[in-house]
Amino acid sequence: MSDSKHIAFLGLGVMGGPMAGHLLRAGHTVTAYNRTPARAQAWRDRFGSDGAAHIAATPAEAARDAQIVISCVGNDDDLSQVMRGPDGALATLAPGGLVIDHTTVSARIARALAQECADGGLHFVDAPVSGGQAGAENGKLAIMCGGTPDAYAAAEAVMAAYAARMVHIGGAGAGQTAKMVNQICISGIMAGLSEAVRFADAANLDMDKVLDAISGGAAQSWQMENRWKTMAADEFDFGFAIDWMRKDLGYAIEEAKALGVSVPVTALVDQFYGEVQALGGGRQDTSALIRRLPKGRR
Amino acid sequence: MSDSKHIAFLGLGVMGGPMAGHLLRAGHTVTAYNRTPARAQAWRDRFGSDGAAHIAATPAEAARDAQIVISCVGNDDDLSQVMRGPDGALATLAPGGLVIDHTTVSARIARALAQECADGGLHFVDAPVSGGQAGAENGKLAIMCGGTPDAYAAAEAVMAAYAARMVHIGGAGAGQTAKMVNQICISGIMAGLSEAVRFADAANLDMDKVLDAISGGAAQSWQMENRWKTMAADEFDFGFAIDWMRKDLGYAIEEAKALGVSVPVTALVDQFYGEVQALGGGRQDTSALIRRLPKGRR
Amino acid sequence: MSDSKHIAFLGLGVMGGPMAGHLLRAGHTVTAYNRTPARAQAWRDRFGSDGAAHIAATPAEAARDAQIVISCVGNDDDLSQVMRGPDGALATLAPGGLVIDHTTVSARIARALAQECADGGLHFVDAPVSGGQAGAENGKLAIMCGGTPDAYAAAEAVMAAYAARMVHIGGAGAGQTAKMVNQICISGIMAGLSEAVRFADAANLDMDKVLDAISGGAAQSWQMENRWKTMAADEFDFGFAIDWMRKDLGYAIEEAKALGVSVPVTALVDQFYGEVQALGGGRQDTSALIRRLPKGRR
Amino acid sequence: MSDSKHIAFLGLGVMGGPMAGHLLRAGHTVTAYNRTPARAQAWRDRFGSDGAAHIAATPAEAARDAQIVISCVGNDDDLSQVMRGPDGALATLAPGGLVIDHTTVSARIARALAQECADGGLHFVDAPVSGGQAGAENGKLAIMCGGTPDAYAAAEAVMAAYAARMVHIGGAGAGQTAKMVNQICISGIMAGLSEAVRFADAANLDMDKVLDAISGGAAQSWQMENRWKTMAADEFDFGFAIDWMRKDLGYAIEEAKALGVSVPVTALVDQFYGEVQALGGGRQDTSALIRRLPKGRR
Ligand SMILES: NC(=O)C1=CN([C@@H]2O[C@H](COP(=O)(O)OP(=O)(O)OC[C@H]3O[C@@H](n4cnc5c(N)ncnc54)[C@H](OP(=O)(O)O)[C@@H]3O)[C@@H](O)[C@H]2O)C=CC1
Ligand SMILES: NC(=O)C1=CN([C@@H]2O[C@H](COP(=O)(O)OP(=O)(O)OC[C@H]3O[C@@H](n4cnc5c(N)ncnc54)[C@H](OP(=O)(O)O)[C@@H]3O)[C@@H](O)[C@H]2O)C=CC1
Ligand SMILES: NC(=O)C1=CN([C@@H]2O[C@H](COP(=O)(O)OP(=O)(O)OC[C@H]3O[C@@H](n4cnc5c(N)ncnc54)[C@H](OP(=O)(O)O)[C@@H]3O)[C@@H](O)[C@H]2O)C=CC1
């Protein structure tokens, strides 16, 4: 296949594993690196039928013969570890190569890596995703991208393997800041929804009828349509974890400070998520925000 | 027409005027009362072509020969004035009559009026609406109802003239508490959206591209789809006014206290709306919440 | 004694009982009314040794031969009940009489009663207190007063029996608004202190040493000096109850809205107090605000 | 003088300059380093009369012949620059030496430096101060200290030159966390006070009388006693700057997250301070928090 590439994929977690699988299915050769080797084995067992799936012991090794490096790890520190230093991917990726980072990290590190790549003759795209585990499995992620037009164009052709929607927002870091915008919106929505569900429940309202009455209007949200019933049923064991959300909100709050804007409700909700973590809910869905609110007198 | 009714309509404002117009169109006889008489004249001039539109000098006079009384005034005090006392509609409506209130008021007064009606052999439905001026004009309101099954059934047949959706939520007051749930959700959404728009603007992002990237996912809301661009353009002169919103949130916060539930973000947003009122934005759309947030350093 | 007065005292609760006792000790004749008769008996048994303590069955009866009516009941509704209507004190107090209200109520009702008194040829002083049960017992209350200079002068002479400090703030209602200022300040202080104690504890700091280090500087407050150690020890069973505080904050938030000012942290803390009520802490001291904050990982 | 020491002092700013001056007065030999050389000259001109005041070009040079290194710079990055690397003080301070840091920084860097010092045979005390510029000028600072008992004992003898109060809170980092406790308390106090002043002003109350009435009771605070009148007069040009406060709150919020505690009001006030920065108030006193609140309708 003419546009088949050699791709180094770093981080085979809940998101990265299936994304790397889609790349194989699209005909690319993938050399994967995962910090915990067992997970790399499991990934090859699951996706790697035809010899196009390889495993490397370090990011540098994975990137050595690659044209493209794609990462999806945890946070700023993690990203720094897989990219920088003698074992990092940037040490071996040949000039002209492309780096796509799908990790949700700070705009600061995205801009720094873009600069480091530029200095080394590499292209960089910050490309955080939304759509969750389901989106990664089904190849239906939404991807927000920052980088030069050339870098984006090259990245788009590859990311198409697992994207339902790709948008080139702007220059380096713009993908990350767009993702922050997304998380800021969700914070407010979840705060209102949590209070609304507790209120409706305490008022002894028929939860389905309330949803029916209000979900077609100005109070509607994706979260209302998808989480109202589960929140009312105290079900939180799916979706995007609060521990991840606090990481993302931390970056958003830091960036807001740098931009000179105030995000009071976001900062408050971040603290409220801390209360849910203290209740043991860190691995639960962001809709578990409701857990910190005592139930009413009903 | 067999199901043509004699209806007293109290309050021909932005919402009530067109609603009463739809009743005429549906074949009912409407005797309207408006505190400011000129508005009643204007209403008859606009809607009353065939002699079915009458004007009364007091609510009591309007209700005297009516089978149904419908109100859409401002707040608790206003509702009390048009319903109670010697000039109020309850003084003259004949036993067996039906009262439908479309005003957004407290659940307390809704329950009290339901009781007063029951004591007088009348039926009562609290029936706050959503959908705004456009919904009233187009006859496409969503109506949340509280009351007995019989009362609701009778009300439904009439309200169909201007409703796109009617839901019988529960007993007396349940319509109002469902509306409060709606407003609590909107508070959180608007808070997040305001911070997000300011953030995106300060980050110098292309606002249309951000919307494109995030409006299909977990951050989506009706408000995002309908207000993102106008907020980014500082346009707030349409839609549901902040002065009304603070009234509604006041009732919601009071009811939350009575129900023993906490609504911290709602209470905070209510205060933030107070800051926008102080900036002169009381008559602007609820999306003007963003006005209290300084623009970033950009 | 030349300045001995006939005083009707309404409400012999935690605050009112000892206050009325001080009036007896100061040589006044006191006719007391308490809704629950047993409490009036207990009061006379405790304070009424020399025949100057009488008990009346209604506020109106207590006020019939009085020159001064003093009230210390619960909230707006309670105050309205003991003052207004055929059994209320205003029905029988002779023209020229003075009404002093020590209840913490809304400025609205204070202004309304001042007007009603003026219409009936009576003087009115709104005179909420601070200093708590200990202040009432020891006669060391601080009293914030609103009313005409004449009314205040007359009230001052009597209130001296139980006051450590009396300040004439301004016209009718000014005593109540000053008390609201007091409660707004306390809300912020308690919020900071709660978070600080949890933080210090989670950081495993020696709580006494921290107090020693910071209580002499810019972070100092009466609450820090008096509640730091008890909060650290989870002791909340003394002082001003959260149920009362929420009443007071409700009036303050309502008044802020009327005044066109925003009180976001006060409104937030009010909701947080609601969470403590839901945890069963309504009768505990305002410092129990800390209870809603989970303890750290320590 | 037997306990006269050779001291390297890094950072001759608003705080450090006068502190280093007190050390000279106490008989120590001080070699000062300041990033901007002119400031070092000005310092020697002001304080260095008898030949005990020297100036070095780098922290390493200042520390070469010193027994003690004292720093008072800006933030974590600044501290790292003056301590670490080839030009940093740790590169030259002889084993057995003592490092005292008066900068308000993160507990993380304090613990890291303590460890680095221990590894190099040095003692380290984190010793943030309170008392402001006046305290530094008058030698009346309160100092919160973290470190080993030996390190603290050695530091105490020297810091006495400018301290009114020194408290050894605990191990490395405990000085910084105690300072965070201080700033958390202040955040809540300033939030309440800001809303209270705006409220009192809108209610048209006599500000002096309100202060008189409430400053003796449960709402009292150092800030109330010292800032009530200046806030009411819109005077903010003195005292601890908001830019510094946000730095401190940033560290506190980060540490709270690490400790697993929630600081919602602190996080909210931090954002509100961001709004005051956007209004141009970053260099103003923390009491300028009130500036973000619109004045009432008065
Ligand atoms: N506007 C909107 O988008 C929406 C509004 N609502 C709710 O619907 C209700 C009406 O809103 P809207 O129509 O926009 O308001 P308007 O101000 O346009 O109309 C209010 C009507 O009530 C009458 N009224 C008010 N007070 C009294 C009184 N004391 N005695 C007699 N009549 C009185 C007014 O009479 P007069 O002409 O003399 O002033 C007027 O007819 C409110 O509760 C609002 O919250 C709900 C959803 C959307
Ligand atoms: N406790 C404190 O530390 C402080 C309290 N305050 C304020 O002082 C006021 C009184 O507080 P406190 O004394 O503690 O309260 P208590 O509950 O101890 O006493 C309340 C008194 O009011 C009477 N009362 C209440 N409702 C009515 C009614 N509807 N009709 C007739 N009598 C009524 C009660 O009668 P009965 O015995 O029949 O219940 C009782 O005598 C409150 O407004 C409170 O906010 C102010 C500062 C400090
Ligand atoms: N001001 C106050 O009221 C209080 C301040 N503090 C804390 O004390 C510390 C100092 O405050 P303050 O004296 O007011 O601040 P100033 O800005 O007046 O002084 C800061 C000093 O640090 C030096 N400095 C900053 N960054 C560096 C760097 N990267 N390398 C070398 N030197 C550097 C500056 O050098 P240069 O002259 O070259 O800029 C200057 O000497 C801060 O952490 C502050 O939070 C604590 C309590 C009260």
TrEMBL record, chains A, B, C, D:
Q: The 3-hydroxyisobutyrate dehydrogenase-like NAD-binding domain covers which part of the protein?
A: 173-292
Pfam families attached here? NAD_binding_11, NAD_binding_2
Q: Keywords in UniProt for this one?
A: NAD, Oxidoreductase
Domain called 6-phosphogluconate dehydrogenase NADP-binding: residue spans: 7-170
Q: Which domain of life is it from?
A: Bacteria
Keyword Cytoplasm recorded: no
What is the active site of this protein? Answer: K179
GO MF assignments:
NAD binding; NADP binding; oxidoreductase activity
Family, similarity comment: Belongs to the HIBADH-related family.
**UniProt name for this protein:** Putative 3-hydroxyisobutyrate dehydrogenase
